[in-house]
User: What shape does this take?
Amino acid sequence: MVAVSRTLPEMDLHYLGHCHDAPLGVYAVPGNHEFYGQEENTLQWIAGQGIVVLRDSVVRIPGVAYILGREDHSAAGRKTLRQVWEASAYSSSERDLPLLVLDHQPLGIAEAVDFGADFQICGHTHAGQLWPVSLLVKRANDLFYGEYTRGSTRFYVTSGLGIWGPPFHIGVPRSEYVVIR
Assistant: This one.
C-alpha cells in the first residue's frame, strides 16, 4: 500500500514508476488524500505505472491469495467486505486461498475478523508523524503502527510513504514501503 502525494521526494516517485518488476504484481488502494482533489488524475497515474488499483474489488493470484482492495473509508458508497466479495467473480466458489485485505484506514477491524480475512494491511496513521501528536493519534486508533492479531486475522499498519502537513517525521518511525514476499 502506498500513499502518493505531490510532496514525495522525486526518488520515491521514481521508485513507484519502476515497481512493475514484482513477479506477482503491485496493488494499491485509494486513501483519504486522493479524495482531496485530483483523485482520478492520481489514480490514473498510479495505474499507468503498471500498479493495479483495487477499488472495492478482488483479484486472485493463482496458488497464492485473493487480494480484496477497499475504497477508502471516506469515500461515498464504500461497500462492506461481504458486498465486495459477493460482487466479485469468485463469490460462487469456495475460498480456497488466503484472503489479503488492503484498506487504507485501520478501521472496520471487527468486520475483517468476522469476514474471515487472513491478513489486512492498512496505513493512514503515519505512525503519528510528529511527536507528541503521535500520542494522540495512537490513542485515537486501536491499530496504530506495526503488527497486530485480532481473532484469527493478522494486521499490519504501515507508517506509509507520504505525509500530511509539515514535510517531515519527528520522533516516530520513518516512512516505509511495504513489500510482501
